[in-house]
């Protein structure tokens, strides 16, 4: 290279370095991390309890996010304590509840939690068979229980009602509207499920405690309990022919595992861990939580979803008597959450809500049918099934992230099968959608919209383009459930002095009101839950 050319190259290099230096000097500085807060032992313990109760379901035990965002200190310490406190108190448009505004945290508690999420997440302890066996209690032995249903009682029309913050279940007679009994359960019970016979009702608390209630007793009573972990949200039973009422299964958030139990005593039989690799990037994940479970009607299997890894498990329990459980793994989509059956009970429809997707699993052909894009953060609960006048059988979900109902065609013979065929606009972000085979109405709550949380929205199945009707209540509305015959809709008014309002499905007029309930949330009619009607 000639000297002149070499000098030109060197000069250009020097200029480039100089310009880079200028660019770096002019670039905005990386935001500084806030200092790590200091908590007393008592503050830490209280923060840990509040976090597991209110926050871990969306953000994870290790604070790494799923339905909600990553809230590890690398993210939270980019914000001031005051900014975090305001988010915790007021909530966000993306679906996070305003814990202070809604009365479920005090101002001091939101201020404490702002500090708590700025420190490193403590590693929760493991929980194994020894701990489970020590927590297992049979309150009423099998041979001391009734041998037939209670005489003169329409027990299949009983409702189990979760009194979330009270840690108990109210069993209510759907005919008389009387509270028959309240039964202690795990804290912040998430769901109730029934055995295939309908006789037993099972609850699972966010503290990992499973409780079993006998509806043939008069009044119903608690017959067994066991703690399967430190954080859980899903439970179901064996429903396939020949295995009715034989087993139950709990899916835990922490430790990440599922536990198979005896169906008449809750004795823990087998623990299966779920730690593993994400389906798409094959990265190891230490916390793949079991988010939802349904019991197959086509095989002796449960369908379990692993939230963080995006895998659906078909768990065969048919050889459990010799200690063998086999799993079929189906890759779906990451951040799986709630889901339920289509009307045929062949296809499992589950929300991967952080990916704005509904995954469809064919439990007969044992494969993923399709990942379907919907609105922002679908949250179906178990979803709702009906026959659309134009598109035929559909399954629907509402959304955490926007006021939208998405309807998906579930008829495999329809050219539009497994696509969103219709959308309805809602006034607010929603948690649940509900209908019944005998109803012409579809009900949606608007629970997490701060301006319409007290409004129930009702659409007409036969007139899907017609504007919906709205019913306004004095308190926040959450979750709807039909009675056994499909003529009544039970709606929770969520408050520490809560109520259930019972509406006539045809007229939408109030028929009755049940008062004196503490934070009533989910309601589960025995027959509808037994038969997977939704």
TrEMBL record:
Where on the tree of life does the source sit, at the highest rank?
Answer: Bacteria
Respond yes or no to whether keyword Glycoprotein is given for this record. Answer: no
Which InterPro entries does the protein's record reference? Cyt_c-like_dom (IPR009056), Cyt_c-like_dom_sf (IPR036909), Cyt_cd1_C_sf (IPR003143), Haem_d1_sf (IPR011048), Host-pathogen_enzymatic-act (IPR051200)
Q: Which residues form the signal peptide?
A: 1-25
Keywords, A to Z? Heme, Iron, Metal-binding, Oxidoreductase, Signal
- EC supergroup of this enzyme: oxidoreductase
Pfam families for the chain: Cytochrom_D1, Cytochrome_CBB3
List its EC numbers.
Answer: 1.7.2.1
Q: What is this protein called?
A: Nitrite reductase (NO-forming)/hydroxylamine
